[in-house]
Amino acid sequence: MWRATVLTIFPEMFPGPLGASLAGKANLNGLWSLAAVDIRDFAGDRHRTVDDTPAGGGPGMIMKVDVLGRAIDAAASDDRPRLLMSPRGRPLTQARVRELAQGPGILAVCGRFEGVDERIIAGRGLIEVSIGDYVLSGGELAAMVLIDACLRLIPGVMGKEASGADESFSVNLVEYPQFTRPQLWEGHAIPEVLISGDHQKVDAWRRAEAERLTRERRPDLWAAYVANQESAKKGPPKG
Ligand code: SAH
User: Fold this and answer.
1) For the packed helices 139-151 and 21-28, what is the interaxial angle rounded to 10 degrees?
2) What is the pTM of this model?
3) 3 CA distance to ligand 1 centroid (A)?
């Protein structure tokens, strides 16, 4: 079973969207589990304080290292990677999601306020993960995004198994355009080739469209794709 533990000062946000749809049903079926740990339970005072003012001054509040340390120690004594949701982290990619989905699960610390005391990162071996170059008000939505992306790759969670193989990003290409009935809508028809029944032609069309869209929209992915194609042509390094 793939296990997610989320450390947050807003445990009531979970499972939230993760409890709906196929992922929610898969949870009931025992394919994955989610525990939301309330960081406040590990505060040392009557007011359940989790934050304090920044050393050196400046705006906002910082999450306390001692409180976080106790919360992490109580939650994790296993081999799951410990993540810190953080705009400074390595941006999340589908390759990373695949890796995490194949592992035992994750522990994710959700920051709030101006973030966490730096010492917790090395102190508890946290790996910083960002979900994009923008700033959220807390790590909870970021953790949900990461968990959602992992869950759909866990065998049995999504209806159809094959799905992952030619999806966006699996080979540095975005996905080709998809269509379904009706055949004609407001004067726009489904491309002829897709109703030809010729699977080879369909595959070729899809590949060409995926390449076109990637080239037009994602020069970064396109460069990686071209580099991959070239090294595949050269074959494995000799010697
Ligand atoms: N002062 C920080 C931002 C704090 S936002 C800075 O300038 O970098 C508060 C919390 O939201 C962060 O600690 C983090 O846990 C979460 N968060 C915000 N943006 C995020 C992002 N893009 N990816 C992952 N987590 C994010």
Assistant:
1) 70
2) 0.93
3) 23
